[in-house]
């Protein structure tokens, strides 16, 4: 095979990224030369019209897979600047109505299809068994493998019913981790029996449901992969996923610019190792430059066997054929997101009529996966302040709230001791306050009315406001 042929095959396994709301010339040129596709991020999005124009330009240059992470809830790209109109998986799992989950994901898929997106990096099929998981949390349907499995299937069916490919993640499971793989390599130190009975249950169900793609996890499972992340492990991607589970769809890597990869084997080395292990399409992530992309193409072409590249590109081409063979019929975009958020929200205790309310939002640092998506409460006719717990003056806040209704908003308070301490101090003086938890409702104070939204999307916030003001 010629060097040019190898280069085209190598490029065909990559999903590149770029900054800005228009496509750079190098992206269009590389698409014409066989680049597999692109992954869009929040910084690529202004509004739906702009995204549609962008994807049209990309498709005119080649035949790209165009992907992004649209999970609903906290992880959104289309609504990155305003917050998602759909609750995420934790809320859907709390409701536990698979038809509702199917409708929500069909609506999400309809919006993506209307914008020219053909691959959604969703749903998250992780079984979130670690309460303090720093990267999954509300992105998971829950901690029960069979609940997660049935909702994963519903999500896959919802997306793919409107011809948007699902990408079920993060194989073989990121839910039992306490380390963010954006920063280092998490370890899931369990036996294969536990892995099969817990982590793999949703993936097995998704495969049976016809999921078009599965995303790898940068997690090490010592009994399976040794110290190597699953993304780079033939034991995980070939022996387990391909052979034992029988999956023959497209295997997509998680972003290779994450530290679990770049701080161990490097971007180009990780790309080659992931392909050799059994991945077909490599998400490079938002960090790599054009020069990095060129280096990856060169390294992959030089080190990955041609037969492996041909197999990977053939699977991606089969996915493209599925894109074009579908009807493209879009589902109705309606208020299903708000309906789902309303059904998920939970109230413990009793709220009181609001009097000149003061809303204190306890600031929570964004995770890398979520990004700086806006969250919080938009309570009409209320004064709202956002406070970093380490800098908060509880006495001054209590003075400010004197003779007024007090609402305290937190996000994953169970993960932040300073947040819990501040809330506890406020409630010791104001047991009549209402606490709204917009993350996982793991920790709650002994006193005060308590509202759990199971997520911080715009729809979750609106549902909480409606409950608070009812």
TrEMBL record:
The keyword Hydrolase applies. GO terms for molecular function: beta-N-acetylhexosaminidase activity. Keywords: Glycosidase, Hydrolase. It holds the Pfam family Glyco_hydro_3. InterPro entries: GH, Glyco_hydro_3_AS, Glyco_hydro_3_N, Glyco_hydro_3_N_sf, NagZ_Beta-hexosaminidase. GO terms for biological process: carbohydrate metabolic process; peptidoglycan turnover. PROSITE patterns: GLYCOSYL_HYDROL_F3 (PS00775). It comes from the Bacteria. Its EC number is 3.2.1.52. Belongs to the glycosyl hydrolase 3 family. This is Beta-N-acetylhexosaminidase.
